[in-house]
Design goal:
Elements (H helix, E strand, L loop, with lengths): L1 H4 L10 H13 L8 H10 L7 E3 H9 L11 H11 L9 E3 H27 L4
Antiparallel strand pairs: 1-2
């Protein structure tokens, strides 16, 4: 609704400038920041009731492919293979396990780098510089 208020004559369409303004504000407000590492670890621990520190990749595949109990809501095969490729420990001889503390540390570090670039871009764009 906020975006449509800018120009009601556009029949439900919005301009890029209106969209960019709202998205830059949300980026600067960190409205859509990802969950922190403790929240992610807590979620993985639910899938690891024995406290082993890892989750079998086939179990993770099963959970992610039927997210919410419906196959239509789960990861597609390409998303699944990319996730598993990223999540598995490449230095381990056993690639059937996802050591989730290592995965969360790697993910958190990569997200922090990515977000910092986004915020730098947003600050530069938001101040009129393009």
């Amino acid at each position: 609704p906020e975006l449509l208020d800018d120009d009601p004559s556009r029949d439900g369409l919005i301009t890029f400038e209106a969209f960019e303004k709202v998205m830059l504000r949300d980026l600067m407000d960190r409205a859509y920041d990802p969950d922190d590492s403790e929240t992610l670890l807590a979620a993985f621990r639910v899938l690891d009731p024995e406290g082993r520190g890892y989750i079998e990749s086939n179990l993770m595949h099963e959970h992610l492919s039927t997210r919410g109990g419906k196959a239509a809501d789960g990861f597609r095969e390409r998303e699944m293979s990319e996730f598993l490729e990223y999540a598995k420990d490449k230095e381990s001889a056993d690639s059937s396990k996802i050591y989730y503390e290592d995965y969360v540390a790697k993910l958190t570090a990569d997200i922090e780098k990515h977000l910092e670039h986004l915020y730098q871009d947003a600050r530069g764009s938001g101040s009129g510089g393009r």
